[in-house]
């Protein structure tokens, strides 16, 4: 398969252009995708990592047009760090997801996050940012992160789905900031919509989003069933569960798989179906 082109502005539809950042990895697939919305004035969605080549590519794609907003779906280091420099270059405000805060004293997840992310305006569910010929409406979709937002382009029924829904892989849900209960509710929220296409932060456009979301819900429920069966068989630790559930997994992704299992266990614990006993777990009522 040919490598996807980085640093090249590719028109996806009249109002949407994509620029791929040069940061491929097991977690980012071919890299983080920045989407530019508009023709005369613009919104830049998830400007990506603080990479000089990607920043230059974005400025070339913007081509001197006014930027009304730098829009952030969430605060991971492959999505938001470039916002600071782009704001300095364009004068556009940073809007969207709330700044990252962990309120508990449990294991920290800060390493994956952008510590310098500071929005000028936080968008709540249903709030909008607009320019000439385009309107973006925020859709609160917590789960992958506590502050995750998707953005609906009302004029064309496209949804910028960030890391909530991706065509190449399911999202990592990593506690304490990631929350499986919230993630499942956010997927259910999308079922009630009529979006035409999803443009994710990683991977190809999703042309049949309702079918994919239903499949993702089914996949997560299948994982939940696997965990309950393993608990019933006396498999008590997360590494042991990962070994049985993710046969053939790339070893580089074992930590992420363990975090997703933990997220399911926390959700099951809330429902009384699993009980934590130190580092081990057992089945609840």
TrEMBL record:
List residues of the Metallo-beta-lactamase domain: 30-202
Entry-linked Pfam families: Lactamase_B, WHD_BLACT
SUPFAM superfamilies listed in its UniProt record? Metallo-hydrolase/oxidoreductase (SSF56281)
Under the heading PANTHER family, the entry gives:
ENDORIBONUCLEASE LACTB2
Name assigned to this protein: MBL fold metallo-hydrolase
